[in-house]
């Protein structure tokens, strides 16, 4: 028993993949949708006041009526508002629950159930947005694929807006391991379970999280990753993807970037 528990709780190797599906698990997908729609938390989407600031910022970057692609659009919290402002918006997400919700509450935007790493648009958009630090949640090879897809999908001169966690955020994190008893089920399962949540730091300014979910009949392990960036490291990746950074911001707002900000937004151009 000791050896089995020790194996479950040990620090995963860098970029070790999860043993189970995460985003497409039916129960977890429903719980994620609840998190997206809960205005009291920013675990899945930013809180409403910050979303509104982001919408205003995005709207200031391109002329009214421009084509916008929202990658990882979730339940359409940004797409719907941007469409209401007069933009031609397409949302892509591989969560069927989120897309169904978005379609039911937004008849202006176009939505597609798809992993954005597999999208095949060609010079279709004036601006592409990837918001709430999705970019850093991808491993390096996936980020290269993403930037290639973004480049192909942008019109000449088009813009790419994303945000990432910074080195300030990385340095403030502390390695830890905590457990939770959920006798009536919870985020990870409708059944009773124990969860062990480990937070780890790696060379290269990478943060890792391991969730070990122990139920009566099974054990599931989920590994999540997030890379943190400086202006120089982010610029280098985008340059390799044929995009040039126009400016840095403190998050997805019009505020200038400060070195102590935990989140950095960038606007890059094709």
Defining traits:
alpha/beta; Rossmann fold; eleven-stranded mixed sheet; 9 helices
Description:
Strands 1, 2, 3, 4, 5, 6, 7, 8, 9, 10 and 11 form an eleven-stranded mixed beta sheet that branches. This protein has a domain of 179 residues: 3-Layer(aba) Sandwich (Rossmann fold). It has 270 residues and is α/β, with parallel strands linked by helices. The mean pLDDT is 93. The longest helix has 14 residues. α3 packs across α4. It contains nine helices and eleven strands. The N and C termini lie far apart (55 Å).
Number of separate strands: 11
Mean pLDDT across all residues, rounded?
93
CATH class of one domain: Alpha Beta
**CATH architectural group of one domain:** 3-Layer(aba) Sandwich
N-to-C series of helices and strands: HHHEHEHEEHHEHEEEEHEE
The backbone outline, from C-alpha atoms, is: globular
| Helical amount | 25-40%
Determine the number of helices (DSSP H or I, runs of at least 4 residues).
9
Distance between the termini: 55 Å
Q: Beta-sheet strand percentage?
A: 25-35%
Radius of gyration equals 19 Å
CATH homology superfamily name of one domain: Vaccinia Virus protein VP39
Specify the structural class. Answer: alpha/beta
Low-confidence stretches: none
The name of the CATH topology of one domain is Rossmann fold
| Largest β sheet strand count, sense and barrel closure | 11 strands, mixed
């Amino acid at each position: 028993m000791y050896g089995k528990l020790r194996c479950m709780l040990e620090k995963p190797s860098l970029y070790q993949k999860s043993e189970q599906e995460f985003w497409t698990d039916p129960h977890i997908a429903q719980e994620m949708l609840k998190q997206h729609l809960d205005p009291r938390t920013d675990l899945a989407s930013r809180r409403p006041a910050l979303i509104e600031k982001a919408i205003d910022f995005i709207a200031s970057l391109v002329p009214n009526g421009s084509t916008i692609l929202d990658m990882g659009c979730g339940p359409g919290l940004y797409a719907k508002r941007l469409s209401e402002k007069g933009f031609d918006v397409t949302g892509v997400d591989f969560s069927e629950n989120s897309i169904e919700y978005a379609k039911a509450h937004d008849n202006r935007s176009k939505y597609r159930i798809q992993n954005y790493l597999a999208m095949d648009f060609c010079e279709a958009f004036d601006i592409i947005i990837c918001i709430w630090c999705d970019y850093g949640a991808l491993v390096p090879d996936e980020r290269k694929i993403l930037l290639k897809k973004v480049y192909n999908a942008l019109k000449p001169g088009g813009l790419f807006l994303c945000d990432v966690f910074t080195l300030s955020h990385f340095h403030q994190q502390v390695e830890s391991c905590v457990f939770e008893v959920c006798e009536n089920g919870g985020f990870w399962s409708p059944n009773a379970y124990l969860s062990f949540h480990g937070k780890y730091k790696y060379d290269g300014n990478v943060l890792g999280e391991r969730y070990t979910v122990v139920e009566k009949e099974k054990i599931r392990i989920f590994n999540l990753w997030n890379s943190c960036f400086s202006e120089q490291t982010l610029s280098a990746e985008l340059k390799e993807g044929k995009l040039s950074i126009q400016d840095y911001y403190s998050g997805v707002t019009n505020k200038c970037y400060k070195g102590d900000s935990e989140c950095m937004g960038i606007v890059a151009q094709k």
